[in-house]
Amino acid sequence: MKISFAKKELLLIVLAFSAVLLCGLYLTYNTYGNFQFAWMLRGKKVAAFILVALATGMATVSFQTLTQNQFLTPNILGLDSLYVLIQTLLFFIVGGVKMLSQEQTSTFLISIFLMALLSLVLAKLLLQRRQNDLFILLMLGMIFGTLFSSTSNFLQVMMDPNEYDLLQGRLFASFGNINTTHLGLAAGIILLGSVILFAANRYLDVLHLGGDQATNLGISLNKFQILILFLVSLLTGTATALVGPITFLGFIVANISYQLMPTYRHSYLFPTAILLGIIFLVGSQFLVEQVFHLRTTVSVVTQFVGGLYFIWKIIYERRRQK
User: Fold this and answer.
1) 93, 103 in Cβ contact below 8 A?
2) Residue 74 in contact with residue 236, Cβ under 8 Å?
3) Which of 19, 163, 171, 258 has the greatest count of CB atoms below 10 A from its CB?
4) Rounded to an integer, what distance in angstroms lies between the CA atom of residue 12 and that of residue 1?
5) Percent of the chain with pLDDT over 90
6) CA separation (Å) from 13 to 122, 179, 258, 266, 269?
7) CA distance 105 to 172
8) Cβ(60)–Cβ(280) under 8 Å?
9) Given pLDDT bands bounded at 50, 70 and 90, which one contains residue 59?
10) Calpha distance 264→84 (Å, rounded)
């Protein structure tokens, strides 16, 4: 199904209006006269929502275009498992109390660097040889993810129970205690990566034709794949280091974007995914705070909704192919 140019623009306007309205509602609802305090507390969360939605939406849509698979997300490269391993090692070596009392910028940057470096090394080793190695790269990402997860579990079993309890608070996505310094650094990295990805949107459009056609049209495929994988890992790693792992968010916003905006043009898919991410995150946090009264978290809501949507997507695709 194709939609006209005017309908695409109208849809983006509606999504943008909904996102702004929802952010305004979240910032002003139940402030009990302390609007300035609520603005400072909730404004930092909204900024984190926007950054995470920007990073996740751009990274997931780009990654799915690169792999030509709408079920895959950048997490298949093992980035979430690597983040868990880094945090587990730091808590195991340094100690949980010291880690929580000293939110160092160096630790934040090291987490981002290692997650981006992993994908870059794998891409350099495999994608420079031949194009089909992209699928071997994804398999290696899954293997490394399992290795990181197993190592983390081994270290967590050996940890003191009190240290382990402190670690668990770091391993779940949290928008409550975000370091302002980290927020500024994350904003710079995410904005830079997003600008580069958006500038390459026409090249990503061509990838829908297939690797051979993209090469015939003048794209240096291996170098372009390495660049996109690095940017995807950088954005995903930064968002993960900022708030923690949010596994299904990218899958949700990317696939709903394909349904709302049935086009191959990333100049429409990118903003649609970003706006949906903002709506989903702010809406989830609003429900968590105002409806569930902090008895659950955004990550739990995301996992629940994402899991149901993933199962529905599989069943829907199988029935459509029959």
Assistant:
1) no
2) yes
3) 19
4) 17
5) 25
6) 40, 32, 17, 17, 14
7) 20
8) no
9) very high
10) 35
